[in-house]
Design a protein that fits this description.
alpha+beta, 60s Ribosomal Protein L30, Chain: A, 4-stranded mixed beta sheet, 4 strands
Length: about 120
Amino acid sequence: MGSSMTNECLIRLPWPPAKLSANGSQGDWRGKAKVAKEYKATCAKECWAQRVRKMQADTVAVDVTFHPPSAQAYDLDNALKRSKQGLDAVADAIGVDDAKWQSMTLRRGGKVKGGAVLIHIKPL
């Protein structure tokens, strides 16, 4: 699923933990920080396992499709918030700081077992 130096890239990340929701800490800031750190590490390992490589690009366009683990309704803005550490791991893996991502499109995908976040990156 990874990419060569200049090609587009498709990365599959695990569904982010509920604790990373904007309302997920419920007063447990340390617990939320620990979960965030663990999710970023898991996503970095996924990038490595999928052979994601540095891109020769100054900017990229990013399409994110959220495939929830259940049919329960969710807000796209909250799904994005929950995925922040995963997206940071992707930025590290491709070598393009997320501050230089030109655009980001968010999409709802169908339910999949365990949930997933699919990230399609196109160098610009």
